Structures are given as structure tokens and as C-alpha cells.
Amino acid sequence: MRAIRGWLLSAAVMMGVVSVEARARELPVPVGKGWQHAQTGIILMPMLAGLTRTGLSDATTGEFDVTARYEAADKSVITTLFLFHPAAGNAALWFDRARTALETSSALPGMSPASAVPMVFAAPGASVASSLRQAYASPGGSFRSTALAVVPVGGWLVVLRMTAPTLTATQLGERMDQVIAGVRWPAEGMTAGPAAVPIAACATPLRFSKAKVVKPDLADMMIAGVVHVGRMKRRDATSAVVTWCRDSAGERNYGVYRSSNEEAGFAMALGDAGRVISVAPSFMGLLNKTGTYSVTMSDVDGSVETFASFNKLPSPTQVWSAVAGGKPISRTKDNTTTVDGKAL
């Protein structure tokens, strides 16, 4: 059900960024045994609210994007649980992206939300209502109802998706209550965090003019990668409240958002799986007063790839075209930056 799954962002993929279905590796967990995610402490048992775990895989090499599947014996309820480390750690933003993927899915035609706005709730162990959920109903098709929930766990997110061929939206919502209660949530990581606020349209949308790609600046692109890696680490280490708004209508490939701590740029959340393109005034552009904008793409494993900069604020369409049709100039992971010399 994900619109984009497994963006390939490593330096080995220099032919451009493509949307692909990742060849996820199955995690070696024996049938009948529970599995604990080392970095969050979440435990997924072989049975969850009467549903049997039928799949457990990782789209990365370090459990940064895990998928677990649970099913009823008679297929009356199918649940998919996604656990990932988003490059922008806001539950409402990724709920908005998951909602867009669901509402535009050809596999779930005619689904209508059961409520006008998502419900904000406190997950087990949480001290504030930091999670969001919504149920959908359909008059026909293979599924009568579906439901979606997003729960933050520290700097990580759990996205739950449930579908049922015969249950009403109300009945499926009750089953989702049971599933959420059945996950063994970690005591640490659930109590902190801001209350969730559903994403709304930005009060004043950005205006764009035709921008041009500029010659790569080695210092600028290395600084851009290090800065974004540092931001992700600081985000996970603090509880600073950052609110987001939607700058334009979302689509399956990406949604455009702006945060309360970024006045001059925007973020493009790719699909609904945690990857983000950031467009912001470049460090050297601010220093030299050239007005250039850097383009970086952050992955769930904490790595950041830098692409060609623009001489002014580019439109999301320009950025999408440049990233999807170009290749990264550099990649930063932890404290190491690798540069593609051919791109200079």
C-alpha cells in the first residue's frame, strides 16, 4: 500500500533516483517467537490481538524500515505494521502522507473517511495525545473498510494499516484498538513528545519563479550534508516542538510541507516511508550573499545525499525533476562525506 517503498540513495546508485519496490530481507525470527526492535524496544509477538504474524522484513540493512504483517485465519482482517526512522520526525506529517497513499490507492477504491478530521489519541504508555488515526468505509470493492494509525516512539514512527472485506469502519476501529493495545510498546520513548496536530494548509503558500541549476560548490555541498545529519541527530536527542503545514495538495510521489523553524524553504516528503528532500538557503549562499538554495535528500538510516543547487528558490516540480533525473553529488553518513568527483 505504500506509494514509494525503498528509495535507493546510496553512492552506488549514480544513475539517478528511482522509485522501486525494495527487495526487503526477511528477518530471521522463528515462527512462534517474539521479536524486539533493538533501537526502540518495541516487541512484536507472533500473535497480535488474535492475528497471526505472517511476515517480518526490513527494507534496509540496519532495521531502519521494518514491515510486519498480521492476518486473521479467515482473512477477515489484515494488518500491516511499518516501523521506520523518518528524516522529518513529525507524526502528523507522515499521517498526512499515509492518508494520501491510502486515498489514492487503486486497491482501495471508493474509500471515504468516517470522520471529517483524524482522531488524535494517546497510545499506551504515552502521557500526551501524540498519535493520530482514522477509519474509512467503502460501499463496494474487495474491502468494506480500512483504518490507519500513526504512533511516534521517540524519533521513530509506527504506522498501522488495517483492512477488512466485511467489517464496518466502526467494527474495524474496534479491532484497531485491540491491535494498538497488543503491541508491546517501550516504556522509554512513549512518554515524551508534543501533542499531535493534524496537518493543515499553509496560511500563505510559497511563490516560485524559474530557477537555474548552478555549478556545484564543493564546500557548500559538504557542509549541507553535515548540517542535515546534525539536524536529525539533534531532533532525536531533544523534544523541541516543530509544527508543519502543507504548502500544496499532495500527490502519490511527494507532498510539499513547511516547518515552523524554516521560513525560506520547504520539504518534500517522498511517498509515505520517511524519506525527505529538503530545499533551503545554502550555507555558502548566505555567507556570500548569492541567494543559492541547496537540495538534500535524507534517508531513514540517517544518511544525506546532496544534489545540485539552484540560484533561487526552485519549485517542487523543478526539484523533483532534478533529483529523479540527476544524480547525487555527495553522500554524508555519520561523520563521513563521499563526493562524486565526476559531478564537479
Helix content: 10-25%
Beta content: 25-35%
Mean pLDDT value: 84
Helix count from the secondary structure assignment: 5
Contiguous uncertain segments of 5+ residues: 1-22
Major β-sheet profile: 10 strands, antiparallel
Structural class by SSE content: alpha+beta
Query: Gap between N and C termini, in Å?
Result: 38 Å
**Radius of gyration using CA atoms only:** 20 Å
What's the count of strands?
21
How does the overall form come out from the CA principal axes?
globular
How would you describe the overall organization of this protein?
This protein is an alpha+beta fold. It is built from five helices and 21 strands. It has helices spanning 91-103, 169-182, 218-237, 283-288, 316-325, and strands at 25-26, 35-36, 43-44, 47-48, 51-58, 65-71, 78-84, 112-113, 119-121, 131-137, 145-153, 156-164, 200-201, 244-246, 254-259, 266-270, 275-281, 293-298, 304-310, 330-333, 336-339. The longest helix is centred in the middle third of the chain and has 20 residues, at 218-237. It is globular, with a radius of gyration of 20 Å. The chain starts with 24 loop residues before the first strand and ends in a 5-residue tail after the last strand.
Distinctive features:
344 residues, 10-stranded antiparallel β-sheet, 9-stranded mixed β-sheet, globular, disordered N terminus
Topology overview:
Blueprint: E1 25-26, E2 35-36, E3 43-44, E4 47-48, E5 51-58, E6 65-71, E7 78-84, H1 91-103, E8 112-113, E9 119-121, E10 131-137, E11 145-153, E12 156-164, H2 169-182, E13 200-201, H3 218-237, E14 244-246, E15 254-259, E16 266-270, E17 275-281, H4 283-288, E18 293-298, E19 304-310, H5 316-325, E20 330-333, E21 336-339
Parallel strand pairs: 13-14
Antiparallel strand pairs: 1-5, 2-3, 4-5, 5-6, 6-7, 7-12, 8-10, 9-10, 10-11, 11-12, 14-15, 15-16, 16-17, 17-18, 18-19, 19-20, 20-21
